[in-house]
Amino acid sequence: MERTLVLVKPDGVQRGLIGEIIGRFERRGLKLVGLKMLQMTEQLARRHYAVHEGKAFYPGLIQYITSAPVVAMVWEGPKAIENVRKMMGATRPEEAAPGTIRSDLALATSRNLVHGSDSPETAAFEIGLFFNENELIEWSRELDDWLLE
Ligand code: IDP
Ligand code: MG
């Protein structure tokens, strides 16, 4: 089973959309295996977004992601990385498909509500940035017989 890191970014927390965003993944059938609220430090933000260092939007991105608390989650399920990315929608809300989080709830690329890992390698790296192994909970869900192949 695949795991992916999801963040409700500071705008999602400030706008009271934590429950809305968690609810979408929960209703889809993905399984929550890690959850915490934290204030990202500049150091954590720089590590998390290291691939974007040097880009024009990078300073604003670091400012944004550290400007208020985030909610960090690990979701598990078949093709969790791809499924979450599709549910988030494209980076730019105007390009996100209707029905996605960014299309339904956001208007600006610099305030696009959510982060989701984009590959197995980044998922492993990002989960490790936010969670210790003992903070990830393995639990069995009775519903799985009705959700999974
Ligand atoms: P992703 O979050 O869809 O994976 P990335 O290209 O990895 O998108 O960019 C990371 C984050 O940086 C975006 O989610 C967004 O918050 C911010 N960002 C990306 N491009 C721009 C831009 O052109 N202007 C402002 N912010 C941007
Ligand atoms: Mg990205």
Describe what you observe in this structure.
The protein is an alpha+beta fold and 149 residues long. It is 40% helix and 17% strand. It is built from eight helices and four strands; from the N terminus they run βααβααβααβαα. The longest helix is centred in the first third of the chain and has 11 residues, at 18-28. It is globular, with a radius of gyration of 15 Å. The relative contact order is 0.24. The mean pLDDT is 98. Inosine-5'-diphosphate binds next to loops. Inosine-5'-diphosphate (IDP) binds at residues 52, 57, 61, 91, 109-110, 112, 115, 118.
Question: What is the CATH top level name?
Answer: Alpha Beta
Would you identify the CATH architecture?
2-Layer Sandwich
Let me know the number of strands: 4
Class based on secondary structure composition and strand pairing: alpha+beta
Rg (C-alpha, Å): 15 Å
Q: What level of helicity do the residues show?
A: 40-55%
Distance between the termini: 12 Å
Spatial ordering of strands, largest sheet: 2-3-1-4
Tally of individual helices: 8
Average pLDDT number: 98
CATH topology: Alpha-Beta Plaits
List SSEs in N-to-C order.
EHHEHHEHHEHH
Q: In percent, how much strand structure appears in the residues?
A: 15-25%
Summarize the structure.
This protein is α+β, with helices and mostly antiparallel strands. 40% of the residues lie in helices and 17% in strands.
